[in-house]
Specification:
Blueprint (H helix, E strand, L loop, with lengths): L3 H13 L2 H8 L3 H15 L4 E4 L2 E4 L1 H28 L5 E6 L1 H6 L1 H11 L4 E6 L13 E7 L11 E15 L10 E2 L7 E4 L6 H13 L4 E5 L3 H9 L5 E4 L10 E4 L1 E2 L4 E8 L6 H16 L6
Parallel strand pairs: 3-4, 3-5, 7-12, 8-9
Antiparallel strand pairs: 1-2, 5-13, 6-10, 6-11, 6-13
Family: Belongs to the LysR transcriptional regulatory family.
Keywords: DNA-binding, Transcription, Transcription regulation
Protein name: LysR family transcriptional regulator
């Protein structure tokens, strides 16, 4: 079995570009780092580094090994945290996977409720835009979104809980000519500069793209990002318009405003998926109740 500590050293040497740099960051002697690398090379049967003048270059095998080891090291880090939690009496844990706007708008309330139910519990939240393949552990509650007119999403072995349906709103400068309209027709956005906040074409991005196609056009993007906060900043700078869900509208700059859309209207459904965990049934029930409560009270606040 490979020594995980040596994998940490391998990754440090690759990141630093030298044995001495890695030794400094790890607070080890360079000779100790070199010895660990030799042992790791012998254990794996791989050539990990090649000399390049006075320095060394990582081989493709070393780079691949370092990349693949990130999962094992993350698992070990999580296991160490679990042991620490157990030592300190924090045995309960509940994990969430959700998109960023839910984490910002809803999870403070949910975590507050969970802390009142189980003060010693640890809450883990993975942002799906950052970890599309899943977080460090399988989520107890997986929050996703889907188009209102799409076939309901189902996950094998999970229970489905609809939390809310919400509109997506046009976000634009308050002085923009379209801000004079009570409702903006989608077709009026055909020639507008667009700012995309879902560059990886997630569910919300696909909902917006389909609404544009229904209206008969393809958005003319001037910027594409993977963060709605950054998209709002670009809109506030007058660089274009964007379309955002209700729960992402909190804290808009004063020079921006919002308008509903029509022909078609644009919306999404937010759904939570849970698996049966007898040991965490109490926490899951409390979290779902809190999610329903906060979803039912979501409204725009500048």
């Amino acid at each position: 079995m490979l020594d995980l500590h040596r994998l940490v050293i391998l990754r440090a040497v690759i990141a630093a570009g030298s044995v001495h740099g890695a030794a400094s960051s790890l607070h080890l002697a360079p000779a100790t780092v070199s010895q660990h690398l030799r042992v790791l090379a012998r254990e794996t049967g791989l050539v990990l580094f090649e000399k390049n003048g006075r320095g060394i270059d990582a081989t493709p095998a070393a780079l691949h090994l370092a990349e693949e080891s990130s999962h094992a090291l993350a698992d070990m880090e999580r296991l160490e945290r679990t042991v620490m939690d157990l030592r300190q009496g924090r045995a309960e844990r509940i994990t969430f996977a959700c998109f960023a706007s839910v984490a910002q708008a809803w999870m403070p309330h949910v975590v507050t409720v969970l802390r009142s139910v189980a003060p010693g519990a640890v809450v883990e939240i993975s942002i799906t835009e950052l970890h599309p393949a899943g977080g460090r552990r399988q989520a107890d509650i997986d929050i996703r979104n889907e188009a209102l007119d799409a076939d309901p999403l189902h996950l094998h072995g999970h229970h489905r809980h609809v939390l809310t349906d919400e509109e997506l709103w046009l976000v634009l400068p308050a002085e923009h000519p379209l801000a004079a309209h009570d409702v903006v027709d989608m077709l009026e956005l055909r020639d507008q500069p667009w700012i995309d906040h879902d560059i990886n074409d997630g569910p919300t991005g696909r909902i917006i793209a389909r609404a544009c196609l229904t209206a008969g056009f393809t958005p003319r993007y001037v910027a594409r990002l993977d963060d709605h906060h950054a998209a709002v900043s670009l809109a506030a700078a007058g660089l274009g318009i964007t379309v955002l869900p209700l729960i992402a509208l909190t804290g808009l700059p004063d020079n921006l405003t919002i308008r509903p859309l029509a022909n078609p209207s644009v919306g999404r459904r937010i759904v939570a998926f849970t698996k049966s965990h007898p040991d965490r049934a109490r926490l899951i029930h409390a979290a779902l109740t809190a999610l329903r409560d906060v979803a039912g009270t979501s409204r725009w606040q500048r």
